[in-house]
Each structure stands twice: as structure tokens, then as C-alpha cells.
Amino acid sequence: MTTLFINIKELIQVRETSVQKVSGEEMKELPTIKNAFLLIENELIVDYGSMDALQSKEVDEVIDATGKIILPTWCDSHTHLVFASTREGEFVDRINGLTYEEIAEKGGGILNSAKKLQNTSEEDLYKDAEVRLQKVIKMGTGAIEIKSGYGLSVEAELKMLRVVKRLKENYNIPIKATFLGAHAIPAEYKSNREAYIEMIINEMIPLVIQEGLADYIDVFCEKGYYTPEETDRILKAGKEAGLIPKVHVNQFNSIGGIATCVENKALSVDHLEVITDADIDQLKGSNTMPVALPSCSFFLGIPYTDGRKLISHNLPLALATDYNPGSTPSGNMNFVVSLACIRMKLTPEEAINAATINGAYALNLEDQIGSITRGKLANFMVTETITSYNFIPYNFGSHTIEDVYIKGIRM
Ligand SMILES: N=CN[C@@H](CCC(=O)O)C(=O)O
Ligand SMILES: [Zn+2]
Questions:
Q1: Distance 330 CA to ligand 1 centre (A)
Q2: Domain 2-72+371-410 adopts which CATH fold?
Q3: Residue 31 burial (CB < 10 Å; 0-12/13-18/19+)?
Q4: pTM of the prediction?
Q5: How confident is the model over 271-299, as pLDDT tens digits?
Q6: How far is CA 60 from CA 1, 7, 43, 63, 320, in A?
Q7: Which of 91, 93, 324, 328, when mutated, tests ligand 1's pocket best, judged by the most ligand atoms within 8 Å of its CB?
Q8: What is the pLDDT of residues 188-209, one digit of tens each?
Q9: Annotated binding site: which residue ranges?
Q10: Parallel, antiparallel or unpaired: strands 401-406 and 380-385
Q11: If you measure from the C-alpha of residue 391 to the centroid of ligand 2, how many angstroms do you get, rounded to a whole number?
Q12: Up-side HSE of residue 308: CA atoms within 13 Å toward CB?
């Protein structure tokens, strides 16, 4: 099946040769073609260019995209999309003055989600999660990472990852799974955290590998959760089993976790609402992708990741939603891109680079998605008639996405 899009107002994120990621000053460049065509064949992008260069060709379908912009779909490299129930009560508690940490100390937060998930069937978890997945795809997400971490027991962690595996089998969108058994210490192990860490290393990881349930391993490296030393042990156990580290770190404190992640060659370090010069020095010269989660900062009222500082030190930056019931009950990557511009002062070019090609890198999928490149998957979206791509982050709170194509199929 061949589909030809013509008269495209502007084709965005066009990369003749596939790049792995963009860093520093490179992030300011967003290659585009005005008045363009785009040719799709089955699942792939096969050609694109200026309308002046379009050769006549037999195709199955021609779509006139006059006035519209076409860009790659968003790459959301950090979500907790599988969860048992929402947590509006904590939302109201925070309005009444409690902090995220105080709620967690009272047994709320992650432990609240874990309690609910342990009593929820795999089927119910799957049904809830697929509704969320369908909604984020309609908003323009074309690749996604989904974590465990609300199970906090062998069976419940496996249950979560089996749900992710079923989503992978039943949906066309590239999905990556992350084992996050080290999300919090379960209440019953509060006085014997070593036993739970041993369980993660000696029971959970082997079973996750045996069932082929995860690509990555994650730890919440933060005061009150896992220390850098514990993080190091768990990441090393995951790496030995073939899992690549992607880590929650520096959300509320800088406790030395960045050095641990870089030393373990983490694919990404995520959150970074707190970042020190020493952390930045650690990241320089590494291949680790810093990932900012601005809708978490928005919802919790905590600082935004200093993206300008990271970029000014010639580092790359990716953007993701952190979609979860506690700190970010939104899977809207369009809002993330808007917040990156409005609150982190990224230019539209930097924010779109961070949410496409750099997000693809943070998913280990930059050779398949994240740019309009011949031979990559036809994962792209068509906007409504808009003035320019600046309108995409400007038009915050809603989205300008009219059609989403995943592997060449209109969703
Ligand atoms: N900080 C750790 N984990 C999630 C929040 C989990 C929750 O509150 O349910 C995050 O990335 O924000
Ligand atoms: Zn998270």
C-alpha cells in the first residue's frame, strides 16, 4: 500500500541521514522542508522532498495536506501507564498543604498504588491500560516505554509486566518494558530492606528474564527510597541479566545517583529537577540521555529540570510524560512540549527535538523512529491547518494533531 501526502505546508524533523541524538547547539536546529511531499509504502517512509521535485508515480492513495504540518510522532520514554486506580485523594491532600513526601510517609504514594494493584486482576489492569494507550496514541504518541513498579511483590511485578507484554503483542506501536521492582520499599520490608533487595535480585530479575518481560531496569534513587549503593547493586544485577539501566534520579535531591547511573552506562537518567555542576560533569562524555518530565513538575509544584543549563553544557535532552496516578496523571506529550517551552524556556525547535529524536534515543529506537528519514517506520502525525510549528507548543492544554499514523496505518 502506497500513500502520497502532497502540498504539505512544512515537513518537520527531516533527517537525510539518521542521527542518534542531538545535543547542545544542535538542538536549536530543526530541519524542515516547506511545500513538501511524503511517500509511505506499507510500514515505512520511502521518500520525501519538495513538491518541485515530485516525480509522477502510481500510488494507492493521495492525501492533500495543504496548510498542514507533518512531523514524527512523539516518543514517550518514561511512563507508568499500567496502574490499578487513580489517586485524586492525594491530589486534594496536596491542595490542603501536604507534600508528596509527607503523603508517601503516611503510606500514600507508590505504596498506595501497590496496595490497590495487588488486589487487581491482570485482565482488569490490561483493560484499563489499553484505554490509556489508545488515548495517548490519538494525541500523537508513536512509541512508548511502560514500567512496572506498583507491584512490589514477585507476583504483582510479573503481573504488571505481563500486561505490558500483552499490550506489545496487541498494539502496533513500539513499546519498551522496564522492570521497576525497586520503586519503593514495601511496608512489610520497612525494617528489613535488605530482604526486599535480595528478592529483587535473586527472585524477580531471573523470572523477568525467564519470561522475556523487560528491556530495561529502573530504580528510584532518592532519599527515602533507594541509596546510590543499593541502586548500583540492583542495576548491576539487571545488567548481568541483560537489562539496560534507565533510572529515576535527582527528583528531590542530588545524592550521588547520577555518578552511579553513568558508571553503569545508563541509557537515561530521568527527572533531574535537581542537578548540580558535579552531576553535569558526570553526564558530559557519557552516552546517558538526560530526560526531563515537566508535567510532573507542573502537577507536583516542584522545580522544572534546568534544561537550559544541560543544553548550555552541550548535553542532549529528551522529554517524556512520566504518566502515572500520583505525580503526573497525564499522558499528553503535546502538553509536555508546551511546558518545555513555557516553563523550561526551550525553543520550539529544542522541545520538538527533545520529544522526537532524543526521545527515540532514550527508547533505544533512534534507528527506527524519531525523524522523517527514508527507511524509518512511518510513525508520523498530521496537524490541523496551523500557522507554523511554533503553534504546536503555543497552543498549550489542547493539541493540534488531526491524524496519527503508526507504521503507515491511520489510527
Ligand atoms: N518518583 C517516582 N516515581 C513516579 C511517581 C510514582 C507515584 O507517585 O505513583 C515518578 O516518576 O514521578
Ligand atoms: Zn516515573
A1: 13
A2: Urease, subunit C; domain 1 (2.30.40)
A3: middle
A4: 0.98
A5: 999 999 999 999 998 999 999 999 999 99
A6: 6, 17, 14, 10, 35
A7: 324
A8: 999 999 999 999 999 999 999 9
A9: 78, 80, 87, 150, 183, 248, 251, 322, 324, 326-327
A10: antiparallel
A11: 28
A12: 8
Ligand 1: which of 77, 79, 80, 298 to mutate, judged by most atoms within 8 Å of the beta carbon? 80
CATH 3.20.20.140 fits 75-362, yes or no: yes
Measured in whole angstroms, the distance separating CA 271 from the mean position of its chain's CA atoms is: 11
Distance 296 CA to ligand 1 centre (A): 9
- Residue 326 is classified by DSSP as T
Q: Where are the domains of the chain?
A: 2-72+371-410, 75-362
Give the integer Cα–Cα distance in Å for 377 and 375: 7
Q: Are strands 32-41 and 44-50 parallel, antiparallel or unpaired?
A: antiparallel
Distance CA 190, CA 152 (A): 12
Which residue owns the Cα nearest ligand 1 atom 11?
322
Cα 400 to Cα 150, 294, 331, distances in angstroms: 33, 20, 15
User: pLDDT of 307-340, one tens digit each?
Assistant: 999 999 999 999 999 999 999 999 999 999 999 9
Binding residues for N-formimidoyl-L-glutamate: 150, 324, 326
